[in-house]
Design brief:
- Helix 3 packs across helix 5.
- The chain has helices spanning 2-5, 15-29, 33-55, 58-75, 85-102, 118-122, 130-133, 136-143, 147-158, 163-170, 174-192.
- It has a single domain (2-192), classed as Rna Polymerase Sigma Factor, Chain: A.
- By secondary structure, it is mostly helical.
- The radius of gyration is 16 Å and the shape is globular.
- The longest helix is centred in the first third of the chain and has 23 residues, at 33-55.
């Protein structure tokens, strides 16, 4: 089952890239505007991809991504661990999505009648085009999950974050993440088995 969910996305950046990103964060915290632009350029696609998988609506995903990045950049001077910048921004994006889901009158529409084509995501400039990485059937099944279950599956199985990183993004202990991931996989399996 997990092999169906895992796409061709590269795992979190290699240590050299991590060191470069951390250096950019430190420079941005000191007021370097070029470093700020570099941070946005480096993480925007990954944040958008995650938001897109959460809501399956390119416009909403773009809004969620932009809101998360704006919030992160405003709070950047307060970030105590620059090496955790990526997971911190992803956590902000996750919280933006959950906040939106909790608003009165909000409904999560399933876009079954209007599936998003791979080209829609590719147009945003992501050459890996997440829509190619996960089949339409899996994307539709993910949308039927509770938001918490969808988030944990997206982080671990689709975006390929490590358990430790995903737990940090969600804000739980790694053992709790493993338990939640097990529950989410079981729920997804029930959807596939039409239970």
């Amino acid at each position: 089952m997990a092999d169906v969910l895992v796409g061709s996305l590269a795992p979190a950046a290699a240590s050299d890239e991590d060191a470069e990103l951390t250096a950019l964060v430190v420079r941005a915290q000191k007021g370097d505007e070029g470093a700020l632009a570099g941070l946005v350029e480096r993480i925007q696609r990954r944040v958008f991809r995650f938001c897109f998988h959460l809501c399956r609506d390119p416009g909403r995903a773009e809004d969620l991504c932009q809101e998360a990045l704006v919030k992160a950049l405003k709070q950047l001077p307060k970030l105590e661990e620059p090496a955790k910048f990526q997971s911190w921004v992803m956590r902000i994006a996750k919280n933006q999505f959950l906040d939106e889901m909790r608003r009165p009158g909000h409904t999560q529409e399933l876009l079954e009648d209007d599936p998003v084509e791979a080209s829609t995501v590719r147009d945003v400039g992501d050459p890996t085009a997440v829509a190619q990485d996960v089949s339409l059937e899996v994307r539709e099944a993910l949308q039927k999950l509770k938001p918490d279950d969808r988030i944990v599956l997206l982080l671990v199985e689709v975006e390929e974050w490590s358990y430790a990183e995903a737990a940090e993004i969600i804000g739980i202990k790694e053992n709790a993440l493993r338990s939640r991931l097990h529950r989410a996989r079981a729920a997804l399996l029930k959807i596939f088995n039409n239970e």
